[in-house]
Design goal:
Blueprint (H helix, E strand, L loop, with lengths): L7 H15 L19 H4 L8 H15 L4 H8 L3 H11 L4
Helix pairs in contact: 3-4, 4-5
Length: about 100
């Protein structure tokens, strides 16, 4: 409620697409929104199974975003709320073939 939404409708749409990709359950919750929208750190409130590393979570989110974007890295970056360069670097780091 406190977020100013400087990107207006486009940013709101992107945030919901990101949440859709980040959510593993049936209900999207605030912790599934991009980090720049949240005032709390999602890592502290996210229900992650014990033993799951941050890199594993990033990799899973990246794979879901790439799948949702049909392999389009620019679209995946928009869904995740990160730069295309970050997507490219993560694809390379995780050894993905998308």
């Amino acid at each position: 409620m406190k977020y100013q939404w400087p990107g207006n409708v486009r940013e709101l749409k992107s945030a919901f697409e990101y949440a859709f990709v980040a959510c593993q359950g049936e209900t999207i919750e605030p912790l599934h929104l991009p980090m720049n929208i949240l005032e709390i750190r999602p890592a502290l409130s996210s229900p992650v199974s014990e033993g799951t590393s941050l890199n594993d979570i990033k990799k899973q989110r990246l794979i879901k975003a790439l799948d949702a974007a049909g392999g389009n890295r620019s679209e995946a970056a928009r869904i995740l709320g990160i730069s295309r360069t970050s997507v490219w670097n993560q694809v390379k780091r995780f050894g993905l073939s998308h």
